[in-house]
């Protein structure tokens, strides 16, 4: 069954593009082979005639709605350096292109991941939220960032969609982290159990046109992405 997962957060630099790229790579099954049972591919079971395939690769479409084109830049590096993966496809889908690209992707994909721009084009973001089964809201661990998430969460609620808030760039051993997480949960925020640390590997692997599950499958960063990918997928199901 097709799933559509949108990454939205009106605050710039929260980690939308980072999450979209690394999660899409994990969901596409790229770079996960080495760590078979760390990630339960069976949860993705794709009935392709031969029943459920344990490690089937999903056909993943990435739609880049951001005029900054960061996700597209990453994909370009990937295309230039490596052989094409026929199960990972990127389309620029900003502005008027969205509905066309979305219907094309719907016909062909197992999963569509949509990366949205910060503030700016709220109508595109609204459409991307409307199309989604689940909306990921990355948030950095500061009160300002958390407050800034409110308008995104409200938009998601207005569209009647489910949100999952993901703490990103969490510093190690931060007491603030625990306190904020408690406070957010107590305030009824849809906080994911999995979060991402502040790790250079997230940036460096994107520079190489890769995802961490692919470039550093044994790293903590990759383990965090696999955990998050599993949690988000179950919630989107
Ligand atoms: N978990 C992380 N650890 C280390 N660096 C990170 C992490 N997440 C994001 N970054 C870095 O933070 C910066 C902003 O991340 P990113 O571009 O993904 O945010 P964004 O929400 O897409 O930004 P924009 O709103 O401009 O689209 C980038 O330099 C990225 O490499
Ligand atoms: Mg971005």
Give a quick rundown of the structure.
This protein is α/β, with parallel strands linked by helices. It is 43% helix and 14% strand. Helix 5 (143-158) links the parallel strand 5 and strand 6.
CATH architecture descriptor name: 3-Layer(aba) Sandwich
Number of strands: 6
- What is the makeup of the main sheet? 6 strands, parallel
Shape: globular
Question: Whole-number average pLDDT?
Answer: 87
Give the cofactors and ligands: adenosine-5'-triphosphate, magnesium ion
Order of helices and strands: EHEHEHEHEHEHHHH
* CATH fold-level topology: Rossmann fold
Q: What strand line-up does the widest sheet have?
A: 3-2-4-1-5-6
Keywords, please?
alpha/beta; 6-stranded parallel sheet
Structure description:
By secondary structure, the chain is of the alpha/beta class. It contains 9 helices and 6 strands; from the N terminus they run E-H-E-H-E-H-E-H-E-H-E-H-H-H-H. It has a single domain (3-136, 198-236), classed as Rossmann fold. The protein is 43% helix and 14% strand. The longest helix has 17 residues, at 220-236. It binds adenosine-5'-triphosphate and magnesium ion.
